[in-house]
Amino acid sequence: MRFPGSPLLRAPVYLAQAALTIARTERLGEAAGPRAGCVGAGPELRLLIVGDSSAAGVGVAEQSQALAGRMLAHLAPHACVTWELRARSGATVRAAPGLLAGAGACDVAVLALGVNDVLRETRPARFAHRYGALIGMLRTVHDARLILASAVPPLGQFPAFPAPWRDHLGRRAARLDAELHAVCLATGAVHVPFDIPLSPQMLARDGFHPGAPIYAEWGARMAGLALRALS
User: Are 59 and 206 in contact (CB under 8 A)?
Assistant: First the structure.
């Protein structure tokens, strides 16, 4: 269904739908479990994961089911992985450098950011500038050899959001992801597309965060990219 009117005229509708969605959506906690450690055997691999609620494992109970845990399950048979997770629900690209305070060096950095920038209406140019600065920080301060940047998810496909606000979020997410893709091309980071099906069975019960099937596929994909790039 198409909704008439300019974005400015539809803004009150978006605000009302956003408030109602926030009020009705179940608040899920971050996954429990360790956020740092060493697993596996073989060549040393230092892994750093940085991001928002999806990196923190919201949508599953334990970190072993979340992005970090699923990556480690695929990496541990091939490497001795020293890993660290720096993630917080609600984090934006602007907040990411603060999450990195005290983090050590890494060979592989995995980024999962952008959803909250969509929701907070971050301007595309500002988003691109901040993301580029974050990638630069990971290279110069944390010695990252490989940076895997998860695409901004297609929020227009998430059932938790009602139309027409969902359509607006979808357009904004696509715009920020295009900026992210350009930043990755310019900086040598790897843009990892989001093409996992978003059926209700794949999502957490809030209809917004990843469920265990998404984390499993996402973690396997990121681990495979890391192993291929560093082999």
Answer: yes
Question: If DSSP codes are grouped into helix, strand and coil, which group holds residue 155?
Answer: helix
Structure letter (DSSP) for residue 59: T
Domain 43-230, CATH: 3.40.50.1110
126-156 pLDDT tens trace:
999 999 999 999 999 999 999 999 999 999 8
The label of the residue with tokens 């996992």 reads 196
Strands 44-51 and 108-112: parallel
Query: Two tokens at 163?
Result: 């139309």
Q: From CA 182, how far away is CA 133, in angstroms rounded?
A: 14
- Closest residue by Cα to residue 76 from 226, 214, 195, 180: 226
Task: Give 26-53 pLDDT, tens digit per residue.
Answer: 578 999 999 999 999 999 999 999 999 9
Number of H helices, E strands in the chain: 8, 6
162 contacts: CB under 8 Å, gap ≥ 6: 17, 20, 21
Encoded tokens for 13: 């509708």
Domain extents in the chain? 43-230
